[in-house]
Specification:
- The structure holds 2 protein chains of 2 kinds.
- By secondary structure, chain A is mostly helical.
- Chain A is built from 4 helices and no strands.
- Chain A starts with a helix and ends in a 7-residue tail after the last helix.
- By secondary structure, chain B is α/β, with parallel strands linked by helices.
- Chain B is built from 10 helices and 7 strands.
- Classes of the chains: A mainly alpha, B alpha/beta.
Chain lengths: 112, 234
């Protein structure tokens, strides 16, 4: 197995586990921000020296830097999709509770 | 054995309804002939469901938007459990697929006092079930595949008829708004260690109730929601 395969698979699995466990505590949020800063730094570097991504790709057993970035993009996309899905589910629940409170306020009894 | 006699005025029947104006009147009137209190949760219907139910003698709680059957049941239970004297609760589908006498026998079962909740089953004992073959196969598989159903020895994981006491009503917290609430209900039974029993019931598969029923493919959604459930913040 290539290094890239090991890395990609473990990234997917780690993201999944991380996502499904502690998404809402302050620590997790802080790590997301740290990850974002690292991402920006890496992006600026890759923009300034695009050929270096190929060097990194070669270390990992990928031919071109473009392919490496594509793989990273796929993982980022999966991460975003899953976290959006879970966020929506949570919002749905809050929305249901809000609607329930409104419904209970306006309950009608048969006598009145 | 110690027998708890159920006072009819302590019983609340919860009927979630979505666009059921055609049948809700008869269903409520039928229930009202035996039970004093019926609460119909109108789940944002676009037809006259709420007015028809109110006219038939039900308390009506109307969701301002459509939320799903699970949310409607939760709303109904929250309404009923804060009524003075409420002690026994039942969920009953609005499409006329349940029989009144099944609810009565389930109440008798609950009144023995050794369980907290009684669930209807299409597949227990000697009842002849008229469930369509494919639906039957899938429902049995669902009950068998669910670890909770198996541990609790339940044979029908998706029956809309449930009778339960105040303990269950007070602790009930359904978070799955859609059709996944049936398996969530079973999961809550396991988590809260409610004592559960099954009672054979008959489902009337009328043309109307079949047309309103959920497509079998929805089972995929239910299984998926089941995996996610533990991960949701309450």
């Amino acid at each position: 197995m290539n290094w890239i395969q090991v890395l990609l698979i473990s990234a997917v699995v780690t993201l999944l586990v991380y996502l499904l466990r502690s998404r809402t505590n302050a620590k997790a949020k802080a790590w997301v921000k740290v990850g974002y800063v690292l991402f920006v730094i890496a992006a600026v570097y890759a923009i300034l020296r695009p050929d270096d991504t190929t060097v990194v790709a070669n270390w990992l057993g990928v031919d071109r830097g473009t392919d490496l970035l594509f793989y990273a993009l796929v993982i980022a996309f999966v991460f975003t999709t899953l976290s959006t899905y879970l966020r929506f589910k949570e919002l749905e629940l809050r929305y249901a509770r809000l609607a329930r409170a409104v419904a209970l306020e306006g309950a009608r009894t048969p006598d009145s | 054995m110690y027998v708890v006699v159920i006072d009819p005025s302590s019983v609340w029947i919860i009927v979630p309804a979505f666009n059921e104006a055609q049948v809700i009147g008869d269903v409520v009137a039928d229930l009202r002939s035996v039970f004093a209190h019926v609460v119909c949760v109108d789940d944002g219907s676009r037809d006259e469901t709420a007015d028809v139910a109110l006219h038939a003698g039900a308390h009506v709680v109307t969701h301002p938007v459509n939320l799903g059957q699970g949310a409607a049941i939760q709303t109904g239970v929250e309404y009923a459990r804060r009524q003075p004297g409420a002690a026994v609760f039942a969920t009953f589908d609005a499409d006329g697929q349940h029989r009144l006498k099944d609810v009565v026998s389930m109440m008798e079962r609950l009144s023995r006092g050794d369980v907290d909740i009684v669930i209807g089953t299409r597949f227990a004992g000697s009842t002849i079930s008229h469930t369509p073959a494919l639906k039957r196969l899938i429902l049995r598989a669902a009950a068998w595949l669910s670890p909770n159903s198996r541990r609790l020895a339940l044979t029908d994981a998706h029956n809309g008829l449930r009778v339960f006491n105040k303990t269950v009503a007070d602790q009930l917290n359904l978070t799955m708004s859609g059709m996944s609430h049936a398996s969530e209900f079973i999961a809550l039974i396991a988590e809260n260690r409610w004592r559960v029993a099954e009672e054979p019931v008959e489902i009337l598969y009328t043309e109307y109730s079949l047309s309103k029923g959920q497509p079998l493919l929805n089972g995929v959604n239910i299984v998926f929601d089941g995996f996610l459930r533990g991960r949701m913040r309450r």
